[in-house]
């Protein structure tokens, strides 16, 4: 694979290897939580069987195949715990963020987590899980041990995974779908909404920590990883799967945390920024499910956005771009081509070190529509899915928006 800056990356790869060797004996506190976490096995009934059914929620597992052969799992929660089965509410599709999976929406208590709350409030809930996460590890040809299984970035998650999952729900329900995304789930959404075959299935979109531009990211861990060219280094070394649960992943975290530039005493804060209302005593439970793997190519694409300030397709370098796109640089996703008639709602926070307010403002400015905005100065990146107070702070407002926009039928057009 051609990696931009490959020469420098090779030199840095050596540095990383040396750093890793020095870590082998003395592991630091920084990653000790990851190291000692006991992940759930892959067996055990999937997301429905592990989280929802034990709490008494109806939940079924579905598998959809993307046009490039990935087998994704999708969960369906048709109503709440005490709902009426034959009174199906409007379909809402939830798309998780980077290193997360569909479990994200169910990881706090049933009173606190958006997935349960939507089901209990009469919505027909569908949960997306992108390729590479624990719930979506299948492919028609490749296994997770193949390099080609990991040959994708969020561009494919938007163009293939979202298309396949939304088409499935659209076909089953014969109704337009309410879209809810968090973080990378908003990058995927905003890219996908520029494609007419996707917007025709969407009645409205609610974006938590919306991201299209990333050049104001301020998270120290991320900036350090960008600065040391971690993405190019890993590609050069042939690590195509990015899994922070693997020995390699834990060592990467140690090597970034140990060089004195990043305070990793609070690893979550150094990666996402401060979070007001994260439940620290639930960390063991979170670590049973997260972080999920992603691809190194995806990391590289995200770092391209941070370095260049663009919201564009993956940059394959001059010749690769010419071959693939017929242009020397990767074509941008044009936010102004999202239909003005697609209603949008955005929730974003003043402490978010990934979806920075400056970048959010640029996204909003480039849209033709005027999204409804909920700004919470004391909220960080993870608060929007995991805050113990998110129901009152965010979800009541979000559900109000969804209810008002829920009636786009197959036949209505905007
Ligand atoms: C935080 O998590 C613990 C452990 O699951 C739980 O007992 C407690 O109620 C949670 N706190 C809040 C405010 O939800
Ligand atoms: C949408 O339709 C449902 C029932 O189909 C109805 O109860 C609700 O009031 C409608 N909402 C709006 C905003 O028209």
UniProtKB/TrEMBL annotation:
SUPFAM superfamilies: alpha/beta-Hydrolases (SSF53474)
The keyword Signal belongs to this UniProt entry's keyword annotation: yes
Stored Gene3D superfamilies: alpha/beta hydrolase (3.40.50.1820)
One GO term (biological process): lipid catabolic process
Residue span, Partial AB-hydrolase lipase domain: 54-108
Superkingdom of origin: Eukaryota
Secretion signal, residue range per the UniProt entry: 1-26
PANTHER family: LYSOSOMAL ACID LIPASE-RELATED
Protein family (similarity comment): Belongs to the AB hydrolase superfamily. Lipase family.
Name of the protein this chain belongs to: Lipase
Gene behind the chain: LOC123120612
């Amino acid at each position: 694979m051609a990696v931009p800056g490959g020469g420098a990356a090779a030199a840095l790869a050596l540095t990383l290897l040396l750093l890793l060797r020095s870590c082998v004996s003395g592991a630091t506190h920084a990653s000790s939580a990851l190291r000692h976490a006991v992940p759930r096995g892959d067996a055990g009934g999937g997301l429905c069987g592990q989280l929802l059914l034990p709490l008494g929620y109806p939940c079924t597992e579905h598998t959809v195949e993307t046009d490039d052969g990935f087998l994704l799992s999708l969960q369906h929660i048709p109503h709440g715990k005490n709902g009426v089965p034959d009174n199906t509410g409007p379909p809402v599709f939830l798309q998780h963020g980077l290193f997360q999976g569909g479990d994200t929406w169910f990881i706090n208590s049933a009173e606190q987590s958006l997935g349960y709350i939507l089901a209990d409030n009469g919505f027909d809930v569908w949960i997306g899980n992108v390729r590479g996460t624990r719930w979506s590890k299948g492919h028609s040809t490749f296994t997770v041990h193949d390099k080609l299984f990991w040959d994708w970035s969020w561009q494919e998650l938007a163009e293939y995974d979202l298309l396949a999952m939304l088409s499935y729900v659209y076909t089953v329900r014969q109704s337009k779908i309410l879209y809810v995304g968090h973080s990378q789930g908003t990058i995927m959404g905003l890219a996908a909404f520029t494609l007419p075959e996707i917007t025709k299935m969407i009645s409205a979109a609610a974006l938590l920590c919306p991201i299209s531009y990333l050049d104001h990211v301020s998270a120290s861990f991320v900036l350090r990883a960008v600065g040391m060219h971690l993405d190019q280094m890993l590609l050069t070394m042939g690590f195509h799967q990015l899994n922070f649960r693997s020995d390699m992943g834990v060592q990467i975290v140690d090597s970034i945390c140990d060089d004195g530039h990043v305070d990793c005493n609070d690893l979550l804060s150094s990666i996402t920024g401060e979070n007001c209302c994260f439940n620290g005593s639930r960390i063991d439970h979170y670590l049973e499910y997260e972080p999920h793997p992603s691809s190194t190519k995806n990391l590289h694409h995200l770092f391209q956005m941070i370095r260049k300030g663009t919201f564009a397709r993956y940059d394959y370098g001059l010749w690769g771009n010419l071959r693939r796109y017929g242009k020397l640089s990767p074509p941008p996703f044009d936010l102004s081509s999202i239909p003005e008639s697609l209603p949008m709602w955005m929730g974003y926070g003043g402490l978010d070190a990934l979806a920075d307010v400056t970048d959010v403002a640029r996204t909003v400015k480039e849209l033709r529509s005027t999204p409804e905005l909920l700004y919470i100065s004391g909220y960080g990146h993870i608060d929007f899915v995991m805050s113990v107070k998110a129901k009152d702070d965010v979800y009541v407002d979000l559900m109000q928006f969804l209810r008002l926009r829920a009636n786009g039928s197959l036949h209505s057009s905007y």
